[in-house]
């Protein structure tokens, strides 16, 4: 397994800890799909906008049913008691506030919590998908991403330069370097990933953020 794959699974594992048992959760494409490996499907109910409530991870090739896929067209399983519905009803569930947690991938997140996760200027896109609806309707929004892009540029930026997904702000951002919380337009680093030092986060982050990690409470500007 590559270092990136290990980091992505670590991000997904940490995201799973944010979910309260009994929650209905929608998982976006990319890192969010890995979250299903780290939850108990008996007390957390996964929703996919193409029309299934009761998604579960599959581990064996003979479990694959080509007709049962998630919104990213990846094969998934169905839990006992799972229900199927059309996309219109699925989006009514989202827009009606019936999704407790949405876990989304991110291209950029700014220091106030705005997220851009559906388009890169100059590149062909398929569309925003369900992300803008989930941003509007889900009760809690968690974003997951590697902290930098392939060029080493921070994805946690002062201001999004890609088209934003919604004017609503996310609640939590989890990267391979740390966990950030967003409240009242303020970005706070609340946890470092295992083996990561604060200096590394500062070095790879464009955005301004405060620090509140156990006994370490301050702004980055005050520390450095």
From TrEMBL:
Q: Report what the protein is called.
A: 3-oxoacid CoA-transferase subunit B
Q: Which family does it belong to?
A: Belongs to the 3-oxoacid CoA-transferase subunit B family.
Q: Which Pfam families match?
A: CoA_trans
Tell me the keywords, alphabetical order. Transferase
């Amino acid at each position: 397994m590559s270092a990136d794959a290990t980091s992505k699974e670590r991000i997904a594992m940490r995201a799973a800890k944010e979910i309260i048992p009994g929650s209905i959760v929608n998982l976006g494409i990319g890192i969010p799909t890995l979250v299903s490996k780290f939850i108990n499907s008996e007390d957390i109910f996964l929703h996919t906008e193409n029309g299934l409530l009761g998604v579960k991870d599959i581990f064996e090739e003979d479990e694959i049913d080509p007709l049962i896929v998630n919104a990213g067209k990846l094969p998934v399983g169905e839990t006992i008691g799972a229900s199927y519905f059309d996309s219109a009803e699925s989006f009514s569930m989202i827009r009606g506030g019936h999704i407790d947690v949405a876990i989304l991938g991110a291209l950029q997140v700014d220091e106030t919590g705005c997220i851009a996760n559906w388009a890169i200027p100059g590149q062909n896109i398929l569309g925003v998908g369900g992300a803008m609806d989930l941003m509007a309707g889900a009760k809690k929004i968690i974003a997951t991403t590697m902290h930098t892009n392939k060029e080493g540029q921070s994805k946690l930026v002062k201001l999004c330069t890609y088209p934003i997904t919604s004017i609503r702000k996310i609640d939590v951002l989890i990267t391979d370097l740390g966990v950030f919380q967003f409240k009242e337009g303020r970005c706070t680093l609340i946890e470092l990933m295992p083996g990561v030092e604060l200096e590394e986060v500062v070095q790879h982050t464009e955005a301004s953020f405060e620090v509140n990690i156990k006994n370490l409470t301050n702004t980055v500007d005050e520390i450095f």
